[in-house]
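Hello,

I think I submitted the S-adenosyl-L-homocysteine job twice by accident. Can you confirm which output corresponds to this input? Input:
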Amino acid sequence: MRLRNVKRAFERLDSYDAVIQDPEQYKGRWHEFFGNDNPIYIEIGMGRGGFLISHALNNPNINYIGFEKFTVVIVKALENIEKEENPLNNLCVVRFDAQQILELFEDDEVDRIYLNFSDPWPKDRHAKRRLTCRDFLHRYKQVLKAEGNIIFKTDNDSLFDYSIEEMKAVDMDFEKMTLDLHKSEFIEGNIMTSYEKKFHEMGKNINMVQAVFAE
Ligand code: SAH
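Support: Only one job matched these inputs. Its output is below.
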């Protein structure tokens, strides 16, 4: 049953305009793809896409690229994008594993990376799969501009502690940090993701950090 769903999702993927089929071809040329020189913000693990859709609507002068590795999930995001009345020319999505991010971007091509409610991979032996482990952070550093930043939100307190330690280990500085975003000064302008809504409604504190690589 599950496999049949996945097959259907694959067949349907190319019927959406917002999904980029061979995103590697735009490495170093994303500005040509978008047709402007606006900043590029990406979200890794975009889920159903609500967060990026709101950002893209609110900020027409920023280009957004959503990464999602699961086809069934990305189809949901594409359906949500198509529900919008007007086409979102500043938003596209790629079915891509963040492990391979260096295949999609040249050095200094990205202005911001959002990591929202990334999978915690609680077992030590799976630590390398966490999107905030130092191997990932090294790759993010390569594609980010010098002044570019990473914004990470999670309900998971131990993943947050771990991520802060990893960020320190690769020499990152913290521009903003809170263990309770919704009670903090940083809440203004915050756009909730679908995981965030769920955890916030349950009364769970949301951790947030905005970090940059030191010179
Ligand atoms: N950001 C959304 C979804 C969080 S769940 C929200 O906050 O509501 C985490 C998502 O990240 C899942 O959809 C999962 O498929 C995706 N993901 C996990 N690892 C990934 C990777 N290596 N590359 C791309 N997407 C990934």
